[in-house]
Design a protein that fits this description.
Blueprint: E1 4-9, H1 16-20, E2 35-39, E3 43-50, E4 54-62, E5 65-71, E6 83-87, E7 91-92, E8 100-102, E9 110-125, E10 129-136, E11 140-149, E12 152-157, E13 177-180, E14 190-195, E15 199-206, E16 209-214, E17 217-218, H2 228-233, E18 238-247, E19 253-254, H3 267-276, E20 279-289, E21 292-293, H4 299-308, E22 316-317, E23 322-323, H5 326-335, E24 340-345, E25 355-363
Parallel strand pairs: 13-25, 20-22
Antiparallel strand pairs: 1-2, 3-4, 3-9, 4-5, 5-6, 5-7, 6-12, 8-9, 9-10, 10-11, 11-12, 14-23, 14-24, 15-16, 15-18, 16-17, 18-19, 18-20, 20-21, 24-25
Length: 365
């Protein structure tokens, strides 16, 4: 980080709104009257903010304050996709190092993490356009913020993607399907997973927001308990494969297809259903991760990437799989009233939209 010049007091007028919104006897955020030096090069920070809605706060050091925008989907990695940025109040310079927990009930209550930081070269700054080059640990390249109306701006990457091999975020994918059969004789070449008999779903996660696709239908709104999965994934862009199952009163998965909820027409009815008859998604595969399709990777590598996300919560789980010894898992599944197991070749790719013999659904007796 570049060296600092002599200190100067933060501009009180610019920070009046910031100060009025916060009780500094309660929040750990820095007060507006802290003195801090300016950098030789202006700095920036991107903070991942788990408030009422997950978003990213993008801040540029300018004239003694941090000029700030809330970016719901984070800094765009690809020039083909623009992200909304909503300008918020200026923040004091010490906020550039802030990470911690803003107490519930306070303005912006929730967890703040530093997602990236560094310095920037300024190319243009006027009332309608801010153009700059970021030099961060995670993000480098030319960007522009373009004002559209009021406090709304668009954030656009001007350079090609930082990763030249980056692939666009996909849509319209279809799940790979298993064939019915018996346990393979060479079961040491297979991974075995529990078959839940639930409703198959692909879950698209981009910028901390999810879309649940079941039977080529967007059913996200029917399951208000699932969007919190986007918070758990955070800024990672992924497409996940899994099964929707019901949960019992002890929050344990119940085999079988959960209620569809298509007959529930109001938000209040859907929220009651989520509370009284919740569902969970049992995750078992990953089709896209951080700018790259993973469908061509072997099953074992896809599972490694899925498990690295550490997705475990009341309404989402990543059940383990077992290499070999499928007979033992099938017997255990039958003993627990589960439908059976799915045997998946360890070296198999993901054949999206196809029914493949590389996956075998074996029913419990």
């Amino acid at each position: 980080m570049p060296a600092k010049k002599a200190t100067k007091k933060a501009p009180a007028k610019k920070l009046a709104t910031y100060g009025a919104k916060r009780d500094f006897d309660v929040t750990p955020e820095p007060p507006p009257d802290v003195e801090l030096g300016d950098s030789v090069h202006p700095r920036f920070v991107v903070q991942e903010h788990h408030a009422t809605a997950l978003h990213w706060d993008f801040r540029l050091e300018r004239d003694g304050v941090l000029v700030s925008w809330a970016v719901p989907k984070g800094v765009p990695p690809d020039p083909k996709v623009n992200h909304l940025a909503v300008q918020t109040e200026d923040h004091p310079l010490p906020y550039i190092d802030f990470a911690g927990e803003i107490p519930k009930g306070e303005y912006g209550g929730g967890t703040v993490k530093i997602w990236d930081h560094g310095w920037y070269d300024l190319e243009k700054w006027d009332a309608r356009e801010v153009k700059f080059t970021l030099h961060g640990e995670r993000v480098q390249g030319r960007y522009v913020l373009i004002k559209t109306r009021g406090k709304q701006w668009l954030m656009h990457r001007m350079d090609p993607p930082q990763d030249p091999t980056r692939e666009p975020f996909p849509s319209g994918l279809r799940p790979m399907l298993a064939k019915n059969g018996t346990l393979p004789r060479d079961d040491e070449h297979y991974g075995f997973e529990i078959a839940w008999g639930g409703r198959r779903a692909l879950i698209y996660v981009e910028g901390g927001r999810i879309e649940v696709d079941a039977d080529a239908t967007n059913v996200t709104d029917r399951y208000p308990e699932l969007p919190r999965l986007g918070r758990a994934v955070g800024s990672t862009e992924v497409v996940l494969d899994g099964e929707l199952v019901a949960l019992d009163k002890n929050e344990q998965p119940v085999p079988g297809v959960p209620p569809d909820r298509a007959d529930l027409e109001t938000d209040s009815a859907l929220r009651r259903a989520a509370r009284d008859h919740p569902v969970a998604v049992m995750l078992f595969d990953i089709l896209y991760c951080e700018g790259h399709s993973t469908t061509g990777l072997p099953y074992t590598e896809r599972r490694e990437r899925l498990e690295a996300l550490k997705l475990s919560g009341t309404n989402w789980q990543t059940p383990s799989y077992h290499k070999g010894d499928g007979a033992a898992l099938l017997k255990a599944a039958g003993g627990q009233g589960l439908p059976g197991v799915v045997a998946k070749r360890l070296d198999s790719a993901y054949a999206a939209g196809k029914r493949s013999g590389d996956w075998i659904l074996v029913a419990a007796k």
